[in-house]
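Model it.
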Amino acid sequence: MEIVRRLRHASVEFFTLVDGEYQRTAEAVAGQRLRVDQPFEIDLDPRELLP
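Modeled.
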């Protein structure tokens, strides 16, 4: 998972290992929901990471 947090901006990218390479499998910016269930459940809006 990569989290980018800047003043009034946050984004999250989730990567999955596929055939020895990481591939982006989900992404969201502030105001959108990032939802994944593997390898564990994640449900968040990157806006929640802002102060």
